[in-house]
Amino acid sequence: MGDPGGFTTTGERVNPAHVMFDRFAQASTCKGTLKAFQELCDHLDLKPCEYRVFYHKLKSKLNYWKAKALWAKLDKRAGQKEYKKGRACANSKCLIIGAGPCGLRTAIELGFLGAKVVLLEKRDAFSRNNVLHLWPFTIQDLRGLGAKKFHGKFCAGAIDHISIRQLQLMLLKVALLLGIEIHVNVEFKGLIEPPEDQENESIGWRAEVHPRTHPVNELEFDVIIGADGRRNTLAGFRRKEFRGKLAIAITANFINRNTTAEAKVEEISGVAFIFNQKFFQDLREATGVDLENIVYYKDDTHYFVMTAKKQSLLEKGVILHDYADTEMLLSRANVDQEALLSYAREAADFSTNHQLPTLDFAINHYGQPDVAMFDFTCMYASENAALVRQRNGRQLLVSLVGDSLLEPFWPMGTGIARGFLAAMDSGWMVKSWAQGNSPLDVLAERESIYRLLPQTTPENISKNVSHYSVDPTTRYPNISLHFLRPNQVRHLIDTGDSSSEMRIEMENVVNSSTPKLTRNESIARSSKLLNWCQRQTEGYRKVSVIDLTMSWKSGMALCALIHRYRPDLIDFDSLDEQDQQKNNQLGFDVAEREFGISPCMTGKEMSQVSEPDKLSMVMYLSQFYEMFKDTVPPGAGDNQNMSPEEKAALINSTKSPISFLSKLGQSIAISRKRNPKDKKEKDVDGLGKRRKTSQAGHSEDEEVSRGNRDDRPSNSTALTERNMKEETAAVGNHNKVKSMATQLLAKFEENAPAESKDLKRQGSLRKEFPQNIGGSDVCFFCRKRVYVMERLSAEGKFFHRSCFKCDYCGTTLRLSSYAFDVEDGKFYCKPHYCYRLSGQAQRKRPAPSPALLNARENQASLPAVVTVDSPGRGEMASPSPTERRTSGTPTSPLSSPLAVVPLPRLAPLARARGVGEGPLRTLRRTLSWTCHQVELNPLDSPFLYTYCIYLVCCFTLNALLNLLA
Hints:
Blueprint: H1 16-26, H2 30-44, H3 51-61, H4 65-78, E1 93-97, H5 101-113, E2 116-121, E3 131-133, H6 136-144, H7 147-150, E4 161-163, H8 164-177, E5 181-184, E6 187-192, E7 205-210, E8 220-221, E9 223-226, E10 238-243, E11 248-255, H9 260-264, H10 277-287, E12 291-298, E13 301-308, H11 310-315, H12 326-329, H13 337-351, E14 371-375, E15 378-382, E16 386-391, E17 394-400, H14 415-434, H15 439-450, E18 493-494, H16 498-503, E19 509-510, H17 519-537, H18 556-565, H19 580-595, H20 603-608, H21 614-628, H22 644-653, H23 657-664, H24 713-731, H25 736-748, E20 791-794, E21 797-800, E22 819-821, E23 826-828, H26 840-843, H27 850-858, E24 866-870, E25 873-876, H28 881-884, H29 906-912, H30 917-936, H31 942-964
Parallel strand pairs: 1-2, 1-9, 2-5, 9-17, 10-19, 16-18
Antiparallel strand pairs: 3-4, 6-7, 7-8, 10-15, 11-13, 11-14, 12-13, 16-17, 20-21, 22-23, 24-25
Helix pairs in contact: 1-2, 2-8, 5-8, 5-14, 14-15, 17-21, 18-19, 19-23, 24-25, 25-30, 30-31
């Protein structure tokens, strides 16, 4: 094309407005964009200050095919019903501080709502080359705003990222087209309250800006939104601090010449290599660069961001001196810039397999190589998203978006997505404010929505991204807009009186409930853990703890630590130092079974690694420290002289909520075998499940002196009955049915034949040393790589959090609530555990015995069966899909594969008398459910009490008749 007013090469006259629009759309700088837009407005005789009609006038005067494609996009967005054709906030005047991506996106949303929007930016250049990860909804959102019209490469193909600079330019152009007033080189200084004298002239809230002569100083606003990043110049918002261990990030941008060789280099999304130990070990051995993670994106530049370890930076000469204070450590005077450039270049070259032909640094707006090193040990989040200030009869709605509201953790890639969600949430709040709703209602709704923001991920927000709007119900599934009540947010209204000032300080403060840990204190805590481990394992054979890695490789130290507090769980003298795999697996299994501490890897992996990962070991051992730090371990030799009460106190002192939850999540298929001669397991709980006992001869429910171990089984039964009577007297009428059922069960087992002494007591049916293909690095379900930070463990299996689902219905499981079938190696939710034999699996079951068929006939008239879903919770048995299709006659309790709690001693008794499993299964179900249903539900209702008694009588009488037949 020629110049404005000229001709094309074909002789056609060029429309100057078209040329100016192209120049505006292709502008690559902030100042260039503003200049091109102003020239276009001057040529078309348009005034952007006429914000209500500006966009419509621009459309009518610019009849250009390229512009029409953009108008179609913007018209579709503006046509959403929530905007009410641009009249939803027609009388609102909004000030936005900061022209970052979130500030600009908020301005655009308010522009669609019809508000007058003024945006301030203290700089006049967009110079940040850093690349942002985009969630699917952000890509859809930007496409709907015409991003492709301004940046043709936007998210082409599988690309899901964009540089901050390009994103700012796109949003700036959209904001200008909507009539938003943007001022650069203007800095916000503070708020000016309305004067007391409002009689002669009504003056509202104003902003104090620099320079003082700028016309924005005279404007009044009723809404102000802070989007100026972490520093946040708006006063009055308390901030919570999230502090982790020392984390030093390095960002580097290299020139992208867009050559064929550069195009072939694969990106590193952060998921492929993060926590890939072999990759980082190879990097350290080859270059001396020691990283925790690295990401590489290809955009306008080759963008790398990595987390470097401090010791590596010291060894490479990047950091000159080691200071305890992080600011001094990373101060410019303590950093060798040339060494930093070399460090970043080596990391980038190795991570791309030396495929980038040149690694020349891009230049930032200071004229320096675009490399930065910073600390993100601490991250901040505002306690509240908004507040209202009220002075002299005038109200001001104050809110935050972007990093000012919720600072992101960059490896997670959540910053821009949550920033856009907050921008739309703020638009919804301003809409409610403009409609005249009370300040308390507006604030309560905004805070209810804000509670969801930190939890959002691409997986838990609404999947239909094309229907997203300013209405939060289109974006957050199952949201409760009235989660908080208006009286719960009264402290967010600042009226300026003394009581208000006590409720909300007029300055940025960190939440005092969050302990401030310096880096020295963090190091001290690691040393404290090591010292504690050394004290607890001192004096044990072949155990010398000098660190938190190699000293634990043999497994002896771990077993010694457990033995120190629970000598009944591990026979330490029998351990072989050379059998590292068995030692570690034993320690891992005992810790998981008894204390609920999930293993960090398998015993086989622990024995094979050259050096255990320090972070994993610290996390693992810290759980022992938290559990035992307030517990006095038994002294050497004292355990034999301890009274039964002291032994019980020792065991109870090592019980933790973690242990309780872990045991609730144990498999339903549990086998508790015992040796009658040793009486290692004395009591039976309400589920018929044997409780573990210690080698000292005591159980969790009762204490038996050593001299009583040789009593006959009948004495054991009498003791059980006596204990049950005492328990009944203590808890009152609540456990009467449970007591009756337990005593009845004890009588059934009175004369049962003894099992073999060689039977080994087990915690579950799974093997003592599970053989997992791929070990802890491979997900048990999907067989893909599972990294440390996303790994869970149950039943000796390791898996992704997202893969831990019920095999029957696909619902996500929790470690505290699942069922595991040892035979087929599958996990189930508790309601569907009973259907594991349905369908094809059920057809493989052996044919029922004549005794079982006879029992089914006898049970046909009995009421519907209730069953136990786990050791700790009783539920009505849900009908299987097949049962749902049958007619309304009650289903026989023996005709469906319902879950049962094993009673090991009943089976030998039945076999001895030639009776099938049918009656036994009925008895087990009935007693188990009745005991726990009564335990869980207070017997306030006479009907429930009568029904429980009826069930016990019906089922047990029928079972007894079959046993004696």
